[in-house]
Amino acid sequence: MKMNSFRKEITYGYLFILPNILGFAIFVGFPVAFSLYLSFHSWNGFTDMHFVGWDNFISLINSATFWKVIQNNLLYTIGTVPISIALGLFSAILVSRGLKSMTLFKTILFFPNITSPVAVALVFGAIFSREFGPVNSFLRSIGFDNPPGWFASTQWALVSVMILGIWKIFGYLMILFLAGLQGIPTTLYEAATVDGANSYQKFRFVTLPMLAPTMQLVISMSIIWSLQVWDLIYASTGGGPGDATRVMVFEIIRAAFTLNNFGYASALSWVLFIITFCFAIVQYTIQQKQINETF
Q1: Is there a domain that residue 21 lies in?
Q2: Domain span at residue 218?
Q3: How many domains are contained in the chain?
């Protein structure tokens, strides 16, 4: 009797999770498998598929555009991730120490994260306008007669997008760090004070080690987001001028829906996955080593 009751519970449990499993299989599992299959075929979405083996991967490796896209993506990641994390952590520490108008401060910093990328791009486009933007007006007032073109300049477009990306994300990272800071026992800081530790020593030997799990999450998320950036770039520069801000996701969408080369786009997608996976593994390994050494 007990066995029958146990089997019924198991059956009901599987029935409850079945919709989730089916949803994952249909909307995640199948597209991933089909993308891998497509990467070895030539297909424009209308005619029959043709097996081409590794040709799509060889074509992208031999493409100068591909390497320019990789360069842009890596520069964007290197330029945005460390600064976003530093600003997020600094803001979280200010808030956790009881900054006046703390709620308003958190709201102001988090607001960019919930703002439409198109709206953000339009606002930044106006702020950094070469002729009428307040940034260039200020630069002219202090003696810079020929200020940068920012989003319209091949030299400054990627930097401008980096500034936009940092402003968009660091408020969210602040919330994550704030949650981590609130989980640190105050007794640790009290013990450090008794031992004569100053503010820097408390941060170095108490705050940072206790924030290690949160830091691992934040770094992983920031790297993944930076490698998959698209909406901000599309809304602000459209990948231009030229190919100055063209990144991997932008190139994937262009290959699929402009060139109708779904096989090539799928190959690009898998290259992006491999790059992201390698970054995540390296970061996770380093972080775990640091955690083990700390604890």
Answers
A1: no
A2: 57-294
A3: 1
